[in-house]
Amino acid sequence: MTITDQPLIPNPAVSDGTSQWRAETLQMVNWGGFHGWHEVRYSSGSTLISGASGTGKSTMLDAYIALMMPSDTAFNGASNDAGGRARSAEQRNLLTYLRGKTDTSRVDGSDELRDQVLRGLDGAPTWGALGVTFVNDNGRRYTVARLYFVKAGATVNRDINTTFVTLDGYLNLSRLEPLAKTRFDKRTLRATFSNLAVFDTFWQFEDSMHTRLGIGGSNGGRKAMRLLARVQAGMQVKRVDGLYKSMVLEVPGTYQAADNALEHFADIEASYLKMLDEADKVKALRRLPDLQKEFAEAQAEALLIRQFGADLDGASPFQLWRLRTERTLLDTAVGENRRVHAETTTKFKQAEAREAQYSTRLELIAEEKRANGGSAIDDRLQQIKTLENSRNGIYEANLKFQHRTEAIHLVMPEKVEQFTEAQTAAAEFLAGFEGREAALKDEEEAVNRDELYPLTTRQAELLNEKKSLKGRTGMVPHRLHGARLRMAEAAGLDPMNDLPFVAELIDVLPDEEHWRKASRPPWAASHGSS
Hints:
about 525 residues; two-stranded antiparallel ribbon; single chain; six-stranded antiparallel beta sheet; N-terminal domain of mukB; alpha+beta; about 55% helix
């Protein structure tokens, strides 16, 4: 019998409220860097675990979390936040712990990454186990454990078989190694350990463990363990109400009812889709009996034909029958062809006779038409056709003439005399074109010489004056400025600093501003002096 089948022995830790359960030992088999069986014993009072980074502190804490808490509980958040090899958040999971992942390396010549592990090399199967033995104030011991079997080629956590067990007393996990090859079969476990309780689901395992340890039955113990996991993870609690909402207050029953309704709807939908799939299969296979019958009949017919020797080469009764049948069919076809040919020949001769009769009749009708003036009508129709063609040609020529004379604004001639006058004017224009063109060119050259050239020269002077004024601050004309620059160059002086114009040195005093206009003519006359 298992512990679930036996009445519990009276437990003072649960009854009187004064006795407590404490962790006595932690056993790890093939967990992270702990290769093989390892046991950590705790003091009955308190135990402080310390050590440098990488010595296994977080590995031990994660072992406790993996054993005591649901599988969706995150591992130690403080260690996962830390950098370093094999210690990132995406690498710390149940599978990497069981295989003992130590690092990740890149395969030579490719971008493929490969885990460096202590166990399960190249995807080989492996196993592991976690167990904690508790002892109460009365010295009674109680062991809870999880047994893991990693399948060959496992890549995700669902490829791991997990077995949940409890035992009244101390359970040495090193004795489980021979049972790993059975993937921890329940019957084998019960046969090896007489008072071992094996559970089918984590929730059964959790409820039994929480009740026995006095953590709280049903949902109460689960809330307490979730709160403990959050505290151990070192996660910040920002608000007290948030802590109560997520860890203390119960989820309304309507939430579970809604989840159940959704699951039920999903089941119904899955059943409906399965029914549709089965209906499609039935529809696709409905003709299978008929097809099978046709196939059997075809096979029987083929067998019958083969029995007559249809597939044999050379002379055979079937070949004789086939040739005689073919000869009969050919004779029948030839007779039918001759009959159709005779009928077609008769119809052709009759058609020729009718054609000759109709031709004679047509000639008589034409003769009667000509005798009654029908030729005059034909002549008039021919004349009409000729005039229509002439009209089309004249219309196209008229359009071309209008297009070519549009530039000279010629009035369209409506009479022969007007067209003749236009021709005469065109001839006169062409005769005097060269002389008129030469006269216009002479006139253009005279205008350029008398009017355009002086303006061009003045424009060039003004542009030079503008260019000169842009490069200096004075307002002296360009001609005088050039003379000043040449004198400065001959004397070796700086024209901007050492040789100013007299006009640039004289200015009207502020109080005599009204004399500025009257003083400009004398200054203008003196611009040539310096």
